[in-house]
Design goal:
Strand content: 15-25%
Number of helices: 9
Shape: globular
CATH superfamily of the largest domain: Spore Coat Polysaccharide Biosynthesis Protein SpsA, Chain A
Helix content: 40-55%
Largest sheet: 9 strands, mixed
Oligomer: single chain
CATH topology of the largest domain: Spore Coat Polysaccharide Biosynthesis Protein SpsA, Chain A
CATH class of the largest domain: Alpha Beta
Number of domains: 2
């Protein structure tokens, strides 16, 4: 069995679209269940999901988690899941009909411990011209291309699994533990890092993964996130979070003023790139470089405050 894990908070309309898409799934080799964890919603989410649990397909289980934070909700679902594979997505995502089948086949064919799927943006409004693909990671819509490839220690590590579209074997989670509750989405904040830290624990344990482009989803991007202030705040806060993760999972032995040397070089490169973008009046490149520099500032602040 495959267990689909969905944490939700006050997104009744979007969640209904996600569940309808799951009802249209091609049947994978195994049966599947859908576990929805209501993280203290106040918009009638539980009543809507309870109504859907009466349908024969797919099998939907409704759980509740009152502690605020996505990591708490995901871990609640993991503890209750019956599947050998845990397929994670979000309450604002529409999976393609072949989503589960693609994960099932890719992991069976490769023996992978985890899998990463393709994510396409579903824009509420057209993105402004200063939003470039370099910034798509902020919006949780990374696209790693049309071809399958392996992921492992030192091998395509850029293809990090994120909660909008990933799958992992249940025995992997039992071995390394679940998602850290001091990281991850929390209401009224832009806190992140739970998927990053979980991924690094998998790599440290020797797990290997696969990127499967056929496991594709469309991720809703609300208009409110297409503001410069959102990108600036998210990247600064993410830089601070990554600096905290770096202390537990060091990426190098060479540091300058408590910051990895390669990050100083990357910052210098971005500064030069910003200069060229300013000279060429390239709005998208200019903003992308500015935000990457702000990420570095957040990283430095976090590194120095943590010393």
């Amino acid at each position: 069995m495959i267990s689909v894990i969905l944490a939700t908070h006050n997104r009744r309309r979007l969640l209904a679209e996600t569940l309808e898409a799951l009802a249209r799934q091609d049947r994978p080799g195994d049966q599947f269940e859908v576990i929805v964890v209501d993280n203290a919603s106040t918009d009638g989410t539980s009543a809507m999901v309870a109504e859907l649990t009466r349908r024969p397909f797919p099998a939907i289980r409704l759980l509740h988690e009152e502690r605020p934070g996505k990591s708490h909700a995901v871990n609640r679902a993991v503890a209750a899941a019956r599947g050998r594979i845990l397929a994670c997505t979000d309450d604002d995502v529409v999976p393609d009909p072949a989503w589960l089948r693609a994960f099932d086949e890719a992991m069976a064919e490769t023996g992978a411990d985890f899998a990463v799927g393709r994510i396409r943006p579903r824009w509420e409004t057209p993105p402004p011209p200063w939003v470039s693909p370099r910034l798509y990671g902020v919006l949780a819509v990374p696209d790693n291309g049309p071809h399958r490839f392996e992921i492992g220690p030192g091998l395509n590590e850029h293809a990090m699994p994120i909660g909008a579209n990933m799958a992992v074997r249940a025995d992997v989670v039992r071995r390394i533990g679940g998602w850290r509750a001091d990281l991850g989405k929390l209401r009224q904040t832009l806190r992140s890092g739970e998927d990053h830290e979980f991924y690094l624990r998998m790599l440290r344990a020797g797990m290997r993964g696969v990127y499967e482009p056929r496991a594709s989803v469309a991720h809703f991007v609300p208009a409110e996130r297409l503001r410069r202030a959102y990108f600036l705040r998210w990247l600064h806060d993410n830089g601070r979070t990554v600096s905290m993760i770096e202390r537990e999972f060091p990426t190098t032995s060479r540091y300058l003023l408590g910051v990895p040397g390669y990050l100083w070089r990357q910052a210098a490169s971005e500064l030069a790139r910003l200069g060229r973008a300013l000279a060429g009046r390239q709005a998208a490149e200019r903003f992308a470089s500015l935000t990457r520099l702000l990420w570095f500032v957040g990283y430095v602040r976090g590194a120095w405050q943590g010393r």
